[in-house]
């Protein structure tokens, strides 16, 4: 085997500059850090905020629809719920209509924390929108939702 590259470096640069997956991953990490930093004083990550918000429904949802909204499998959702359960923010209980199923419910403390976190999310989002004023955010969101 030689040290000679099989794919020219120009191709590497092309992929770096055009790969939607790479750019989406980099953007997702940057956004996650920004929202993690903003929510840190409340002891929340951006993922935990999204999970709490996904549970903010008139009726406690089953795991399947929550996992679908968050684009995660049930095993990952179960792991993500554990620290929120330990903090008393979420209760996972049996579904009275189907004892095999589980319903997810925000506790009073979970609703209180979500109420405190939402203005932080709004402020962080407003700053981000202002920084990206040259970008059509509705088109960006529509494109991202189409991919997801």
Automatic annotation (TrEMBL):
This is DNA-binding MarR family transcriptional regulator. Residues 17-148 form the HTH marR-type domain. GO terms for biological process: response to stress. The keyword DNA-binding applies. Gene3D superfamilies: Winged helix-like DNA-binding domain superfamily/Winged helix DNA-binding domain. It comes from Shinella fusca. It comes from the Bacteria. GO terms for molecular function: DNA binding; DNA-binding transcription factor activity. InterPro entries: HTH_MarR-typ (IPR000835), MarR/SlyA-like (IPR039422), WH-like_DNA-bd_sf (IPR036388), WH_DNA-bd_sf (IPR036390). SUPFAM superfamilies: Winged helix' DNA-binding domain. The lineage of its organism: Bacteria, Pseudomonadati, Pseudomonadota, Alphaproteobacteria, Hyphomicrobiales. Keywords: DNA-binding.
């Amino acid at each position: 085997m030689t040290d000679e590259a099989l794919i020219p470096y120009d191709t590497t640069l092309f992929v770096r500059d055009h790969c939607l997956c790479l750019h989406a991953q980099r953007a997702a990490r940057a956004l996650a850090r920004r929202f993690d930093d903003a929510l840190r004083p409340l002891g929340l990550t951006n993922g935990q905020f999204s999970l709490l918000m996904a549970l903010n429904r008139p009726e406690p949802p089953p795991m399947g629809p929550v996992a679908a909204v968050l684009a995660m499998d049930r095993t990952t959702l179960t792991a993500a719920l554990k620290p929120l359960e330990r903090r008393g923010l979420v209760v996972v209980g049996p579904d009275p209509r189907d004892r095999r199923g589980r319903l997810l419910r925000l506790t009073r403390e979970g609703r209180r924390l979500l109420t405190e976190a939402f203005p932080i999310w709004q402020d962080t989002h407003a700053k981000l929108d202002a920084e990206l004023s040259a970008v059509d955010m509705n088109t960006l969101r529509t494109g991202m939702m189409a991919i997801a």
